[in-house]
Design brief:
Blueprint: H1 2-15, E1 24-28, H2 34-42, E2 47-52, H3 55-65, E3 70-74, E4 85-91, H4 100-110, E5 111-121, H5 128-141, H6 149-158, E6 162-167, H7 177-182, H8 185-195, E7 197-202
Parallel strand pairs: 1-2, 1-4, 2-3, 4-5
Antiparallel strand pairs: 5-7, 6-7
Helix pairs in contact: 4-6
């Protein structure tokens, strides 16, 4: 799973407008910590903090961190005392959350003034490929209804953020056999190039 996401992580780093060197970074829904390891190895972050509700993933993240300045906790929201971050990230986490307004408020509090939250969101109501996937899987996975991007932007604006959006600078998309079992190649490319959006939420 970690390696499958690497091309998106690279696209995120190519797209953002923040210098990560020397920053304190929060990874929302960090899974096994692969993105924070990438930031520690390639971007020179000062510290990385990641949380995820999956205990086994956090155990792996701690084991794989080695001597890097990374800390991981099992949690569904920023743990108590985690604040003052320069930058926060998530990759495909927002669609999983039942209460996005509460999440927006929690991340606003976790960032320092001038901090930025970058959130990649491809699973939303305007994405045909993901709407089909969601319809097939929402009940089994206990997912909330698909969000409209405009509503997401409004909730974060209401929480105090300045909102901006862009498309990821994606180059080549790895095409696995299972992708072509579910969608045409052009549909997969359209998803990654046009519907997988990078949202930038800036705390004034």
């Amino acid at each position: 799973m970690q390696e499958e996401h690497r091309f998106v992580w690279k696209a995120m780093l190519d797209t953002i407008d923040t210098d990560l060197a020397g920053t304190r970074v929060l990874d929302v829904g960090c899974n096994r910590g692969g993105f924070l390891r990438l930031l520690a190895d390639d971007c020179g972050i000062k510290e990385g903090f990641g949380y995820d509700p999956a205990t086994s993933a956090i155990e792996d993240a701690r084991r794989l961190a080695g001597t890097r300045p990374l800390r991981f906790e099992v949690a569904a929201a920023p743990p108590s005392g985690w604040n003052g971050f320069d930058v926060a990230f998530n990759h495909e986490v927002l669609y999983l959350l039942d209460d996005l307004p509460a999440h927006a408020t929690a991340i606003f509090r976790a960032l320092k003034p001038g901090g930025v939250y970058y959130a990649v969101m491809g699973v939303h109501a305007a994405s045909p490929l993901m709407a089909t996937w969601h319809a097939k899987n929402a009940e089994a996975m206990g997912l909330p209804a698909l969000y409209e991007l405009d509503q997401v932007a409004a909730w974060f604006s209401d929480a105090g953020f300045q909102v901006a959006a862009g498309r990821l600078w994606i180059r080549f998309v790895p095409i696995a056999a299972e992708h072509l079992d579910e969608a045409r190649l052009l549909d997969v490319l359209d998803y990654y190039y046009n519907q997988k959006i990078l949202l930038r939420f800036s705390r004034p």
